[in-house]
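G., the chain you wanted modeled:
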Amino acid sequence: MRICIHQSLGNIMNSHVKTINAEDFVHLRFAENPCLSPDGRLVFTIRTINEKKNSYQGGLFLKTKDSTNYIRYTSGTHLDTSAKFSPSGKLLAFLSSRQENGMQVFLMSVTGGEAFQVTNFPKGVVGFTWSHDSQSFHVLAMVNEEELEVIIQPKVSKSFVLSPIDFEVEKIKEKTIKSLSRDPRVINDGFYREGTHFLEGRKAQPFIIPIGNFFRDDKPSRISDVIHLGNIAYHYTLGTFTHADTQIILSKYIDDPSVTMSQEILSITVNDPSKANVLGSAFGWVSNFQLSPDGKNVLYEAKRENKTVFDDQQIFVCSLDTPQDFQISCLTEKFHRSASMACWLTDETLLFLSPINGRISLYKIDLHTKLVEEVVGGERNINSYSLARTTGDLAIEVSHNSFPSDIFITNLENPVERRITEVNNNYLKEHPPAKVESYSFQLNGHSLQGWIFLPSESFSDEKIPVVLEIHGGPAAMWSPHEKTMWHEWNSLVGRGFAVIFCNPHGSDGYGVEFRKAVFENWGTIAANDILKGLDTALSQYPSLDPQRISVTGGSYGGYMTAWLITQTNRFKAAISQRGVYEFIGFGLTTDIPIWFEQHYGEIIDTYARNWSDSPVAHVKNINTPLLIIHAENDFRVPIVSAEQLFWLGKRYGKVMRFIRYPRDGHELSRSGEPRHIVDRIKQIINWIEKYS
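Predicted structure as tokens:
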């Protein structure tokens, strides 16, 4: 029997202090998605869990520039997020889950009052952006051919672009969706599933929604007809308006996204969408088109052509100054780290986020010299930010090992930070998070980073059991400040376990060559790093119990968990989550097959290597009790991989249990149904405690 006392002497004397546990997830709050208006007003979302409805909800909150407190802006009975002020500063648009058919655009006056629904696309809106004159939205939505025909017919388009006074539109919507539903599904596209849903022939399509005088006399008026910019045969990305709002700059896949990662950069004329000019080509997941303040350049993010998925995510700038000779340059190719969420600071400089050495910081880069400077850093993760260019104010969403997510404000000229939210303050007073320490280790001439979360002092003579956690990707980067892991790690520590993890080769945040090291070799190299990191922690922390070590991870981490227990018997328990266990089946059934080809080559040409690197090929070697966790609607790593591993394990008499979560997908641990998230952590803890 293992007897652990989780509270230190100080905590025992302070009897109201409690450990963090799995059930506490429903009590956590997350301040996120800050948005600053041109004059410095701040809007952000506080996301919470509705335990009774088993869902997420969150309202928008407002803080004016001169106020010290923030006030509720929307009710928060649903999830309101991704707020964007109009360039005029008079209107606020945001996405909301108030309708059952996905996130839709809602609009309200900045002076407050009721928010009115603007869009009503069949499966919601992927994203939106304002025109510079504040008179239109550019929207990206998933639609199929039948739905598009209805959308572009002026007489019935109100069933998809909603004028809020037309209440009868709900009946039209229900009738339309019912008539378009099919059983059986007829599939013609290679890319036919995404997230947790079948696409039903839908493709990401660009639209323009003119809102005109939407709030005439403080009441919503009828919306003009929607403009379709694309070709239903292709998938598009969300773009940006040019300076005069006459064109949209965006990208289009040249073929089915399941067979190519190549795209074209296009300029489409708003009033005549048939006029589409090709500005250049791009590779990878192209995103975040933004126009410079002077309208002469547009930035976007992608990977370099003639490279692979192992390349850093780069910032590109396309010059619009000479219409007959568009110039595209890679701004960050010498930075040697990934860049994301870029925005224009001035006509000559940009801001962007980058993961580096176990933290995420904000950087500035010069358009001409390409010199990079850290602007806002620190030992923490900056997950998102918003810039008020006229005032220099900067709002940042921060996660830290001491709190899950809060909003801070600073100024680029006067970098004194003010903490705006402490949304978990009362909870954290009673539930202090675990302390964390970092360490480094060497392997084959390379320096690597590791971290350890330790429980409070124990009065038991027993050593502390260990849980080795492994991140996904493989090109993810973990930090002790990882927002999506904060609750899981602290729940494990609350049960008396030490949690150890590192960033092995293949991880982001350490350069292209570091990430590319796992090319055609997901197992051996990273496994050696992980085990060396574990051994280093065991040697540096003598209070750890080397005889009671468990291992777990998700996605690629699930693969590595299964791989490790086919190679060693040192673990007492293992939990593999949403993992890849058989490469051939995975490469042929995932919703991103072209991505896996970039890692292991074409399946039919690399059959032998794909099989030998699959954990199922070595299942006879497993002697560790294994819990397999998977979501039934996971189209990224289809559940068939888990079914194969489980059945083979049972075939050869291995100790295994298989838990399937209905409705959820690959994001089960991050944004799955709240009850599933809680149950998953409880199942992990129960399995570890049973066998270690």
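The longest helix spans residues 674-691.

Shout if anything looks off.
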